[in-house]
Specification:
Blueprint (H helix, E strand, L loop, with lengths): L24 E3 L8 E7 L14 H11 L3 E2 L4 E2 L5 E6 L7 H18 L3 E7 L5 H12 L2 E6 L18 H7 L8 E6 L6 H9 L3 E4 H6 L2 H12 L5 E7 L21 H12 L4 E7 L10 H19 L4
Parallel strand pairs: 1-5, 2-5, 2-6, 6-11, 7-8, 7-10, 8-9, 10-11
Antiparallel strand pairs: 3-4
Helix pairs in contact: 1-9, 2-3, 3-4, 7-8, 8-9
Length: about 325
């Protein structure tokens, strides 16, 4: 006979009137059709130019995401009917960085080829996974644009250190995976970049919004103008969020923290707005290092990036 006071072994409090996000996430069996949102981890951080435990981030972001409720009081929107599938993590090669990146590329490419209705939500890993992720995304979607939230241009030369978390957009531009005019960088921070790399990006016709632009202008205007510009020349938009775009006081668990970054609420507003745009068909979050975080603060901010994007999707009737 079942005893009424027995509960699941995790020992957590259960409230019948609360739906947690974790209840709406289902493990994908690898065979059923993938349609809608699907989380996939790319736990690579050996390519980081500084110490990084970002390979552990997919797990901590999943944990943080699962603990929040599905209800947005700000928009009176409940995501309690959504289903998000979890594909697990892409297995990384133990020593070969380029081979690991190629596994990311092949996995994203092949999954989108087999399941064109899949919306990838990629949890890095460091920023080096952006190059193979966007490359695989572009092969499936055609001409793509990227909106990049980041403190850095990430266009370092490939000669000094090879492919790294500082080179993804250099690789994307030099391989012509994307055109410079189809790349928008938001949140580029003072004293975090070099003049030669700014000049390189400008010469490639990259649209750059510095943190001064973010402070002086309404974030919705910046994103709205960016989307309208991209829609003239691309078939799909990929959203890349490097968590170090957020000020170090709110996202301490990043390898490259710094003062003067974006307020988390501005980032949430921007991604919620982008969630309303049907041309945005992919999302990644990179550069969370749980080994230097405090109480998973940065993973929690990352989880809210996902939830705000989904909130925008639901608001626009695109779920």
């Amino acid at each position: 006979m079942k005893h009424r006071y027995l509960q699941k072994a995790n020992g957590t409090f259960q409230d019948r009137d609360v739906t947690k996000v974790g209840e709406r996430i289902r493990s994908w069996n690898g065979e059923d059709e993938l349609a809608g949102f699907g989380i996939i981890g790319a736990p690579l951080s050996k390519s980081s130019i500084s110490h990084s435990g970002a390979c552990f981030a997919p797990g901590t972001i999943r944990k943080a995401l699962s603990g929040f409720t599905t209800y947005s009081i700000e928009e009176n929107i409940d995501l309690d009917q959504m289903v998000v599938q979890d594909l697990g993590d892409i297995e990384m090669h133990i020593t070969d960085i380029v081979h690991s990146q190629n596994r990311v590329y092949e996995t994203i490419r092949d999954l989108l080829a087999d399941h064109p209705s899949w919306f990838p939500i990629v949890f890095g890993g460091d920023n080096s996974i952006t190059y193979p992720s966007v490359r695989g995304f572009a092969e499936a979607k055609g001409t793509v644009g990227v909106i990049q939230f980041d403190a850095h241009h990430d266009v370092r030369n490939l000669e000094d250190g090879g492919t790294s978390n500082g080179t993804p957009f250099r690789s994307l531009l030099e391989t012509e995976t994307i055109e410079g005019k189809n790349l928008v960088q938001v949140g580029i921070r003072d004293f975090s970049n070099s003049k030669p790399y700014y000049t390189f990006a400008k010469n490639q016709d990259v649209m750059i919004y510095t943190m001064k632009d973010v402070r002086d202008r309404n974030i919705r205007d910046i994103i709205g103008n960016s989307v309208n510009m991209l829609k003239k020349s691309v078939e799909a938009i990929y959203l890349s969020v490097d968590m170090d775009v957020v000020d170090q006081s709110q996202a301490p668990g990043c390898p490259a923290i710094g003062p003067g970054g974006m307020d988390a609420s501005d980032l949430f507003e921007a991604v919620a707005y982008l969630g309303e745009e049907p041309m945005v068909q992919g999302l990644e979050i990179v550069e969370v290092d749980p080994t230097v975080d405090f109480r998973d603060m940065t993973s929690r901010v990352a989880a809210h990036v996902v939830l705000n994007f989904l909130k925008g999707r639901e608001k626009a009737g695109l779920m």
